[in-house]
TrEMBL record:
Species, as recorded: Amphimedon queenslandica (Sponge)
Pfam families to which the protein is assigned, alphabetical: adh_short
Gene3D superfamilies: NAD(P)-binding Rossmann-like Domain
Keyword vocabulary terms for this entry: Oxidoreductase
Sequence intervals crossing the membrane: none
Composition skew (Basic and acidic residues), residue ranges: 354-372
GO terms assigned for molecular function: oxidoreductase activity
InterPro entries: NAD(P)-bd_dom_sf, SDR_fam
Domain of life: Eukaryota
PANTHER family hit by this protein: PHOSPHATIDYLINOSITOL-GLYCAN BIOSYNTHESIS CLASS F PROTEIN, PHOSPHATIDYLINOSITOL-GLYCAN BIOSYNTHESIS CLASS F PROTEIN-RELATED
Keyword tRNA-binding attached: no
Name of the molecule in the record: Uncharacterized protein
Span list, region Disordered: 326-372
Gene expressing this chain: 100631723
Length: 372
């Protein structure tokens, strides 16, 4: 797992790529690698200050290799906000650019039970729902692009942690119980399920969807761990020590992502789960078509107010892809989640604040974790 990985040095000149969370960690190395291959690369993240510093560093590192390919720019995207996600899409469409590569990389982990301004558990919204919304709203641009280039890619960065995830529609926001480690795992499971359900809806297109585990990476997300008690903290420390010899740096962690985005041999129009640049099996639960469609329906229900009507009509019905309509007994919905007073939308509220105040995470603290 810790061995050297590589990807083909293809020419991405005149291509456009978006990398969420491209200002740090795996996302940083992914964005830099894509840019070095010649693509106009858009780093989508919350902090302009951090993105600007990252872009300057990327350009210097690329130039140091003798390359002059460093067309990199920042666009604001706060995945803890559906409004911000939709605003990003509007701003991107105003540029009238094609879109060849979309890399859903950004993720949050090790977060106490925290509700976003939209009223969703942080892992659920940032790692899944907002990327779900982003991807669907960008599909018209990608479909137009694919008509001419015949090869567009959507790459979703999941994790081997998805193997510990479960799909429980009654507890997707921590209504019943909460563990920050398990909710990270759940969100990574949703990533895999989303990828396969999305590819079914794109089966007649020239868009290939891939989902992957980048490896065990030496990033801030890993270093901070997921400890919730002194015992868990000790166990996490031992785990990091034992995993050290097989851990990858962020550059190697980005290799599988970049390979999925650019390797001509992967232009298959079929979704696969990758680890170490190879197709491997995700857990059987993630491959259950009925559960994938239940997750899709739940996701649509929760972001529908931000979806364009044509997107809802074309992609949000299981019947349109030849499947029987899924009607789960329980879907996750919020009580009037789209009617929040504007003054309330400025803050992030921790569920059961009166009893879990010591575990709360502010929006600013959450933003520092909203990157891979």
């Amino acid at each position: 797992m810790g061995g050297s990985l590589s990807f083909p040095e293809v020419d991405l000149k005149d291509k456009v790529a978006i990398v969420t969370g491209g200002n740090a960690g795996i996302g940083y190395e992914t964005a830099k690698g894509i840019a070095k291959l010649g693509a106009r690369t858009i780093i989508a993240c919350r902090s302009e200050e951090k993105a600007t510093a990252a872009i300057e560093r990327m350009k210097a590192e690329i130039i140091a290799t003798g390359s002059d390919q460093h067309n990199i720019e920042f666009m604001k995207l706060d995945l803890s906000s559906f409004n911000s996600t939709k605003e990003f899409v509007v701003s991107f469409k105003e540029k009238q650019l094609p879109l060849h590569i979309l890399i859903n990389n950004a993720a949050v982990g090790s977060v106490p039970l925290t509700m976003t301004e939209d009223g969703y558990e942080a892992h659920f919204q940032i790692n899944h729902l907002s990327h779900f919304l982003l991807t669907l709203e960008l599909l018209p641009v990608m479909l137009d692009t694919a008509q001419s280039c015949k090869d567009c890619r959507i790459v979703i960065v999941s994790s081997t942690a998805h193997k510990s995830g479960v799909f429980d529609p009654q507890n997707m926001n921590g209504e019943v119980s909460y563990s920050r480690l398990l909710f990270y795992c759940h969100s990574k499971l949703y990533n895999v399920m989303h990828a396969f359900a999305l590819q079914r809806r794109l089966k007649e297109s020239d868009i290939t969807v891939s989902v992957l585990h980048p490896g065990i990476i030496k990033t801030e997300l890993f270093d901070k761990g997921f400890s919730e008690s002194s015992v868990a903290s000790t166990a996490w420390g031992i785990g990091k020590f034992l995993l050290g010899p097989i851990m990858r740096d962020a550059f190697q962690g980005a290799a599988t992502t970049i390979n999925c985005a650019v390797n001509p041999e992967l232009n298959t129009k079929e979704c696969h789960y990758y680890d170490s640049c190879k197709i491997v099996s995700s857990i059987p639960l993630s491959m259950n078509t009925d559960l994938q469609e239940q997750l899709w329906d739940i996701s649509v229900t929760n972001v529908k107010a931000w979806l364009s009507p044509e997107i809802v009509e074309k992609y949000c019905s299981a019947q349109k892809i030849g499947l029987e309509e899924t009607t789960p007994e329980t879907q996750t919905t919020r009580a009037n989640p789209h009617c929040t007073d504007s003054t309330e939308e400025e803050s992030t509220t921790t569920k059961n604040e009166s009893t879990t105040k010591d575990k709360s995470t502010t929006k600013e603290e959450l933003a520092t974790k909203n990157e891979r």
